[in-house]
Amino acid sequence: MIDQTENDKFKADFLSIAASTHAYNKINNLLLMQILAKLEGRDLEDIRDNVDKYLNQFSAEFIKANS
Questions:
Q1: Alpha carbon distances (Å) from 26 to 7, 11, 21, 29
Q2: CB 33 within 8 A of CB 47
Q3: Integer angstrom CA distances of residue 46 from 5, 9, 30, 52
Q4: Which of 16, 36, 56, 58 is most buried per CB count within 10 Å?
Q5: How far is CA 63 from the centre of its chain?
Q6: Spatial separation of the C-alpha atoms in residues 16 and 18, rounded to whole Å
Q7: Is pTM beyond 0.90 here?
């Protein structure tokens, strides 16, 4: 019973850290895209679309390489 409780606590802690990391990365990406849009005089949506495309591509490559 103790092992299950410790396992549940570990999962909850991990999920909390993962959620915080995900949110932090999303904010950083948005800020970087805003800076690029301003510096390059480009549309933020255009940059966001490119970022989403590359994230999907890199994620797929990572999953393929580590499967």
A1: 28, 22, 9, 5
A2: yes
A3: 47, 42, 13, 10
A4: 36
A5: 15
A6: 5
A7: no
Question: How many whole angstroms separate alpha carbon 37 and alpha carbon 29?
Answer: 12
What phi and psi values does residue 41 have, to the nearest 5 degrees?
Answer: 65, 35
Q: Which long-range contacts (CB under 8 A, 24 or more apart) does 42-46 make?
A: none
Summarised one tens digit per residue, pLDDT across range 4-59 is: 888 888 888 888 898 888 888 888 988 998 998 899 898 888 888 888 888 889 88
What six digits make up the tokens of 22? 């995900």
User: Residues 64, 66, 67, CA angle at the centre, nearest 5°?
Assistant: 70
Region of residue 41 (phi > 0: left; psi between -120 and 50: alpha; otherwise: beta): left
Measured CA to CA, the distance from residue 25 to residue 33 in angstroms comes to 12
